[in-house]
Amino acid sequence: DAANLLEELELLCQVLTSLERFLASWSSKGRSFKETSVFIKAIGGCKTQISAIKIKIDKLVGKHGVAQIIERGKWYYEHDEHQQLIQTIHRYIGMFQISLSIDGM
Q1: Please, are residues 12 and 89 in contact by the beta-carbon 8 Å criterion?
Q2: How far is CA 45 from CA 38, 39, 75, in A?
Q3: CA dist 30 to 3, 13, 24, 94, Å?
Q4: Which residue, of 4, 23, 61, 92, has the fewest CB within 10 Å?
Q5: In whole angstroms, what is the distance from residue 74 CA to residue 59 CA?
Q6: Distance CA 50, CA 93 (A)
Q7: CA distances from residue 33 to 15, 37, 42, 105 in whole angstroms, order as listed
Q8: How many CB atoms lie within 10 A of CB 69?
């Protein structure tokens, strides 16, 4: 689960880097997305998911000794939750890639 999560996060990072360049180019042309844009909402949802992942990872690395062993044990038993996070991140990657592809047309 951790390896799959890391792989999805690396892909997300690559897509977000491209998206950042795209948004910077739009901004330099005086364009921007409205706050009600689906795109803006997708970015907000993605940010929420990344924050949830950060909290989980902070629990793993922020504790030591027995507390860390317990958190790692919990990680093993939260397989379904991790798979859902991975799928959600994968959907965000797809949405952002489609947005970039449409711009490329």
Answers
A1: yes
A2: 10, 10, 23
A3: 40, 25, 10, 26
A4: 61
A5: 10
A6: 12
A7: 18, 6, 12, 19
A8: 11
Structure-block tokens of residue 39: 């795109």
Dihedral angle computed from the Cα positions of residues 42, 28, 105 and 87, in that order, rounded to the nearest 10 degrees: -20
Phi and psi based region of residue 29 (left: phi greater than 0; alpha: psi -120 to 50; beta: remaining): alpha
Per-residue pLDDT of the chain (105 residues; tens, 9 = 90+): 677 777 888 888 888 888 777 777 766 677 666 655 677 778 788 888 888 888 777 777 777 778 777 777 777 677 788 788 888 888 888 888 887 776 554
Can you give the pLDDT at residue 32? Answer: 66
The answer to pTM > 0.90 is: no
